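Q: Hi! First time doing this. I have a protein sequence and I read that you can turn it into a structure. Is that right? Here it is:
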Amino acid sequence: MRRNFDYMTSSEAVEKVRGWFTGRLPEDWFEGPVEIVLDREEISVVGRLPEPPAARGVSETERAAVLAGHVQRFREETRERRIAIAREAEHRFGQKVSWGVVCGDVREMFTTLSVPVMTRLRQPERRVLDTLVEAGVARSRSDALAWCVRLVGKHTDKWLAELRAALEHVERARAAGPKA
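A: Yes, that's right. Below is the predicted 3D structure, encoded as structure tokens:
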């Protein structure tokens, strides 16, 4: 399926999608602009919920429970409208939509795609995956590979953010250059 923003740079595509969602979402759902993350298959929309007053001045355990309940209530109360908006966006942009929220220090994704990714691994890399499976860390090589990717992402967030920023700079420079 061809996305209607294939011709745009990544930052232009994010701005277009964020603008559409900003115009389409109910104004009382989120504080500030939504966070949009795009890849080849999926548009992730993450909004910040206002922290409920009941989460202030209580123990960390109670605070965590209040935030979890607030997130769950938002998820349930907005489900039908989020599905309708997602269908519109999927038709408009040609990609699936995933939803998530941030509330206080809690970040929860409600829906996400799990997309197969093909890779070729030599024996030493396969042995790493097999060791994780044999140790019970993962159920399969696929789960082990996903676990490895999450671990690398967790420990290299700053480096990956710098790399993404550099790529956006390259995309802007390409867009400003002569057209082929």
